[in-house]
Amino acid sequence: MKTKFILSTLTLLLFALLGGGSISENEFRIYVIVIIAAVVVVTIVTAIISSVKSRNKEKRLHMIKEDEENATGFDRSIYIGDDRCKIYFDTKKKQVMIMRVMTKGIKKVYVDGFEFPGKELAIYNSPKFSVPVFNIYDPVNRLLLSGTYDDFNIMYQVTSISENDNNKDVAVGNSIRPCFKTLSTTRTSSSGSISKKLYIILIDECRGLIAISDSGKVKKVFNYLNANSLSKKTGDKSTINTKEIGNYLFVMDDFSKVLVLIGPNHHEILNYVDILEVSFEENGDQLYTKSAGRTVGGAIVGGVLMGGAGAVVGGLSGDRKQNKVIKNIDVKILIRSTNRSSCVLHFKDIDRDLKTKEVTDRDLYETYVKRANQAKDILSVIIDNTKQAIAPIAQPVVPPTLNSVADELSKLAKLKNDGILTEEEFQAQKSKLLGL
């Protein structure tokens, strides 16, 4: 990043000087020499750094090999990790060894009482984020080993999932395997600094339970299903789908009709039937809405004109009204609850306003709009499916009255005046309403 910045700055300065036409031949020679010298220095420094990293890695790998050859009493055949940290599993001893490797030496810690769960439940994430993390779940003893390392220190914890499970005494009729999912979040400050986090989410569908780990520490363990719902699920096939969108993980249990939304430092548990409406909002203005209760206004704004949940018109397309200042891009969920009527998902992950006339900001804007679209599409499908599931077999068809047609024409005209619909789209929908 620093190399790119230096080279970009020098290039821009060169173009500025050439554009000004105010430098002499000698000054130009000096400038070219400076550029060449800078490139040479950067190249040499980069090569040195790369060489040092390569030598250090080779040394660590040699230390690991030597330690494995000389050590006895612990089976090293099963492991996860890399040259900086290796985690071994001795299946006979039911023991885990965490080995931190640095060029200055090796440090080991042992954890007892762990059944090897298979590598799908033993994961290690290298330090591409702020800290490396490892998470290992033993479904037999229901223990979660999570941790990280800092310099020569190994920090870890063993969490008893069963002790945090409200459904631990419920008889279950399914044998669905637990799984890990990841959520990587990004936040950009107004100064441009980027903070990243990696959340590891354990989903124990058999017990209707989720555990969230942040930076190698278990932050939350909760049940998303109650005992009555849990006992209805049978078999060994998962009914859960997950989707990572922006800084949120959507966990959808289509059998139990429950949606779990996991975001930075919080989560939401929503029954499908309690999702009354989803809307897309930009700077507080509602550009899209899909309602479980409305069939006329909701269908026109969120269905007919948009061509269904997946198609978007106007404000959600990200290609119109490019000279805008964007403060917020949100998806709002209206909930059937007396405690809290709604929850809002924020998709603008930068702490400053976006000006879409600028190329960089416009790219960010389109990215955020795309993510918001994905979220509202999922929620719209949930609303549609729930409506179909609870709808009566047949409903009387009521022809639209003149007043209702006039109202809808008025809404269409407003959408066109606001720039959300083109003239062609307006005329097409007008013809549909009038039966032309």
Query: Average pLDDT across residues?
Result: 83
Shape: flat
Class from helix and strand fractions: alpha+beta
Helix content: 25-40%
Instruction: Give the number of DSSP strands.
Output: 24
Helix run count: 7
Main β-sheet, spatial strand arrangement: 1-2-3-4
Largest sheet: 4 strands, antiparallel
General description of the model:
This protein is α+β, with helices and mostly antiparallel strands. Helix content is 31%, strand content 33%. It contains 7 helices and 24 strands. It has helices spanning 2-20, 25-70, 227-230, 297-304, 359-390, 402-417, 423-434; strands spanning 78-81, 85-90, 95-102, 105-112, 122-125, 133-138, 143-150, 153-160, 173-174, 179-188, 194-204, 209-214, 217-223, 234-235, 240-245, 248-253, 258-263, 266-271, 275-282, 285-291, 325-326, 329-335, 342-346, 354-355. A 4-stranded antiparallel β-sheet has the order 1-2-3-4. Strands 5-6-7-8 form a 4-stranded antiparallel β-sheet, with no helix packed on it. Strand 2 and strand 3 form a beta hairpin. Helix 1 packs antiparallel against helix 2 (25-70) and helix 6 (402-417) packs antiparallel against helix 7 (423-434). It is flat, with a radius of gyration of 29 Å. The model is unreliable at 295-320 and 392-398 (pLDDT under 50).
